[in-house]
Fold this protein.
Amino acid sequence: KGRLVKVAASRRSPGRPDLWEYLDSSGRVQKREVDENGDVRPHRIESFAEGQLVRVEIDGDADGRMDRWQEWRSGRLWAEALDTDDDGEPDRRIRFGPNGDVIGMERIGR
């Protein structure tokens, strides 16, 4: 028996996909990739666990490498790691409180 595992959609230009969703065995979205500028490459990758957003990776400058990594817990942004020196690795982390306020910032990595 077959099942749907990937769905592509076009939000802007008809016939040119810019959103891809990968489904788990129960049909829930497991991963979503979004092309933000029409080059048919994902600039945002969202990961889900049991229907809840848990991680977002963002290529903010569209150079093909992710430069922001967000952790989501219980439906809210918990932390975001940033690549501020453009080496492809996170070097700063920002933590957020329950109401979205920044509660901490630290250097990470090397």
